[in-house]
Specification:
alpha/beta, Rossmann fold, 2 domains, 6-stranded parallel beta sheet, 4-stranded parallel beta sheet, 12 strands, 40% helix
Amino acid sequence: MTLDAAGNWPPERALVRALVARGHEVRVLSHEAHHRDVVAAGAQFRSHDRDLERDPAVRRDETPEAEMARVFQEVFLNRRYAEALLAEVRSYAPDVLLVDQMLLMAAAAAESTRLPTALLWHTVFGGTSERTPMPSALLEPLNAYREQLGLVRIADRFAAAAKADAIVAFTHEAFDVVPTERPKQLHYVGPFFEPSGMATPRDLPWRPDDPRPMVLVSYSTSFQNQVSVLQRVADAVAELPVQVVMMLGPISPDELRLPSNVAARAFVDHRLVMGPAQLVVTHAGHGTVMAAATIGVPMVCTPMGRDQHAVAACVAHRGLGVVVPATASSQELKAAIERALADGALRARAQAFAAALDPVASYRRAIDVIERLGSGT
């Protein structure tokens, strides 16, 4: 069970493909936006009720704090997801439940079924579980529902996660700040990357024969009021001897003043563009950071909200990039980008980190965890 929240879907979609390829029957309960992907993967699709649909590209003029408060109410603490999960369990009789980490009420419902359950954790775990208590106004509805289901009360959402039989974390263990009190059921499987399509030189948004270093600017595919920071990044690179690929997501190029050395696209496959990149400038979305860390490209991070501050902190902690406030001026951003491009030690650390990884093992680790749940071992 999942939802359309932008960055959560790529690793979950890849997991669905891997499970089907392994020979398992998979049913996905999600938003209609995922229908085509699920059927293409060879799985069964069931749509949420229309009133649970949400488009991550919808524009709202709200602060990151206001966004999170709204998302907690609409997603994390929405009982409708729990009711949908319980109805599906009754009609489908699955052997194992996989629940997106954001759906706290649905995770509680899954716990109440006593079926083997894994939470799909699509960001860092230790970095986000600093044990900051959930406000009582948010925690109380979850505990009230847990009591209704006959479950014990919990102290925070990470204590709720620890009730699952497994936590499948789509991040590198070597990247995360592993919690001191690591839950025994936490499994770092690593990020999932699906095969990228082939592209001809004519399709590439940069010139391979251009001697200038290529910089990738990658911000969210969901709307986060990112026009201002994108413009300041564009102004910063305008004065630098670089060629830039800027991924705009839901932002139109018409909303920005783009210099001649910037090629703007809504989205470019990360694996296609990361290889030749000398630097990634990003909001520190987990998917973008995992792609850069896995390939060995240093980063300049400007976290805006959500889990991005925790992800950016891991980037800094591992020495894989630098963190700059999202409010930084274009001149401050220019200086950070210049320093990062000129820092040979930074690039060497990023490449050494990537060289020590085994990304191919991610699928095997995840499948092993889920199959062990299904077999009761």
